[in-house]
Amino acid sequence: MADRYTYIPYIGLFLMLAWSVNYWLKLQPAFHIVAPASVSLCWLRAPWSRESNSAIGVTAFQLFQHAVQVTPKNRFCDKNLSFPK
How far, in Å, CA of 84 to CA of 74, rounded? Predict the structure, then answer.
């Protein structure tokens, strides 16, 4: 199903990740170079991953067609494709 409300449970995980990074930065000075570089690479990669994921479902009809191709015995998508366009 949709993952549009997953940001609420992930708040705790992001806080834990931020505090862990802060802890490791205090222990190892070498992480002061590695951490910003890795965050920058992830931040620069984000627009391309969004484009590749959203290219599948341009319209609802195309999304259901793709879902039927990937999972042939998908009754939900078969039912949605059977309605008039």
Answer: 18
Helices 31-54 and 7-27 meet at what angle, rounded to 10?
160
Residues 64 and 70: beta-carbon distance below 8 Å? no
pTM of the predicted structure, to 2 decimals: 0.40
pLDDT digits (tens, 9 = 90+) for 25-75: 888 877 778 878 888 888 887 766 655 555 554 677 777 788 888 887 888
**Is residue 14 domain-shared with residue 44, that is, in the same domain?**
yes
Contact criterion met (CB below 8 Å) for 56 and 63: yes
Would you say 28 and 20 are in contact if contact means Cβ atoms under 8 Å apart? no
State the residue range of the domain holding 74.
56-85
